[in-house]
Amino acid sequence: MKRIKYGIMIFMAICFLNGNAFSLTINSQAPDYSAVNPLLDAAVSGMFSTILTDLNNDIGTIKDNPVKLAESFANAGTYSNFAATQRGYQGYDLFAITAGSMFAGKMSSFDINKLKGVDNELKNNGDVEVGAGWQTWAIQVGLNTSRWIIEDLYLGLKFGVAKFNMPLGDNKLKVDYISIGALANYQVLKERALTGALVWRGISVGSGLIYQKNATGIILNLDEKTTISGQYSMEIDPNLTFALDSNIVTIPLEVTTAVRLAWFLNLSVGVGADINFGKSNLTARIDSDINAYDTGVLVEPDTPGYIRTNAGVDGANPKVFSPKLMAGLGFCIGPVILDLPMTWYISKGFNVGVSAGVVW
Question: What integer pLDDT is reported at residue 199 of this predicted model?
Fold first, then answer.
């Protein structure tokens, strides 16, 4: 009987610890006003404690290791790696130059509104399977090496970089990446004109190496916190940022084909998979000024305070092997092309993009 009682007590203790050990924790230090305004400094401790309680009530239900969020952003980052793709236009005579943009998502369902509501999902559930990646621009230069190296071998180099924050509902998407790639395609079956208006572009197999350094993430705009004590007041306007610290190499394996209809319409399809390796972590950061006022006048502290969190996920790596289905709708007028590529990943991911360029 005693063993059962002790077993129940141990089980309850473990449940209690688990319920609290995984909650996001806040580390803080109140600003010091002891020299510049001793009376304000005496009031700061109580006001700062009240603000921290309000902040903890707001975000304390979020897990300190949101693995689903971390892995979703890591995977979406690799999905976005194919901006400026030329996969639907292999078989060109000499060179191809394309510029493009590509947005990618990794979500439990294909509902982009989940990204806008990620703050509520995190607060309600502690973690959420939602992630995004956006290569806002990249450029790729391709060369047909048939004249110099190997017949029907196409080599390409691509590059893209961006850093900015984009409004996303009440929050912001933090876009921060650099991507460099070397690609190769081999035309297994050559292009063939079936009729004057219908051209089959043959079958191409492609691979390469794409390196991406990625710090993309989500910035949650939290409610402003204010408290008053007599003639004194204190306020913070915090943001909670979850962002990747990722260095990933992707090896795409792709088999594609395409047809050109009516001289200007290009339809492409393909199958493949991405092989990913490297290291990806998710870091969390609280950003906020801590302001104190005496009769409405801002007082500068002797020593500023801080509010921090130790939340994050180490080893939040993308899937090593990600099968995919590809398609594209394009338009071509002479050497000028406009392409709308898209990919569906079996692991509930996708990318959609737009590319433009010249093929000669």
Answer: 92
